[in-house]
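Below is a filled-in request sheet from our internal design queue. Each sheet records the structural input a requester submitted and the sequence that came back. We keep these sheets so that new team members can see what a complete request looks like end to end.

REQUESTER: design group, bay 2
PRIORITY: normal
MODE: inverse folding
CHAIN LENGTH: 211
BACKBONE (tokenized):
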């Protein structure tokens, strides 16, 4: 099972997310995506100051994610850096950390502008990997609307600014689960990162409960 996990940039603005990264290490099948955080914020500041195009700002923000990825690798050296889909086969039993520049800077199917941030780029990667689940880790304490209606949830997340403007549209082409989690909900995080038991084991457990 492949799970793509995006660590929100908001989690890096007050200090290193050391405990979260250490918690994520050693999870086979998990691919981390770093948000740009304060590095991407600086691109937003520079764009009007230097009269930069949206395309230039988009590429600079991707490089901000790349830089944040290198910071994560320094904080948690057990993470395995990957730049291409082929690299993922070398991650072995560890947790992969995606450095996005090689795959995304010139990708023709990614709109260039602030409507696409690291949320949508994580979704784009989940699609490319045919990942069964995409997990977006948000700031502690954030109220995440949840229902049984995915379209309703996506609309609510967009209205509240929990995902970027392009996310709901890009999600139409993704068949896996999408889960938003506050960083302080460790129990939910552990549940969504745990792969489901094999079908045979699940059926045996159900049979024992009934007997």
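RETURNED SEQUENCE:
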């Amino acid at each position: 099972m492949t799970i793509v996990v995006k660590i929100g940039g908001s989690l890096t603005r007050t200090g290193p997310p050391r405990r979260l990264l250490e918690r994520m290490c050693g999870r086979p099948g998990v691919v981390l995506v770093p948000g740009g955080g304060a590095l991407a914020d600086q691109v937003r500041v520079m764009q009007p100051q230097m009269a930069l195009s949206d395309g230039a700002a988009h590429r600079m923000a991707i490089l901000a994610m790349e830089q944040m990825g290198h910071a994560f690798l320094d904080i948690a050296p057990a993470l395995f850096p990957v730049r291409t889909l082929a690299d993922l086969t070398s991650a072995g039993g560890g947790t992969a950390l995606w450095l996005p520049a090689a795959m995304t800077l010139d990708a023709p199917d990614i709109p260039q502008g602030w409507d696409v941030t690291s949320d949508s780029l994580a979704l784009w990667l989940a699609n490319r990997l045919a990942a069964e689940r995409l997990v977006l880790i948000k700031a502690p304490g954030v109220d995440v609307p949840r229902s049984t209606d995915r379209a309703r949830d996506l609309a609510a997340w967009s209205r509240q600014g929990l995902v970027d403007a392009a996310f709901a549209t890009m999600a139409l082409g993704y068949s896996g689960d999408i889960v938003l989690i506050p960083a302080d909900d460790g129990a939910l995080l552990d549940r969504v990162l745990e792969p489901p038991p094999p079908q045979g084991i699940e059926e045996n457990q159900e049979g024992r409960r009934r007997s």
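SHEET NOTES:
- The beta strands are 3-7, 30-34, 80-82, 96-98, 133-138, 177-182.
- The two ends are 30 Å apart (CA to CA).
FILED BY: M.R.
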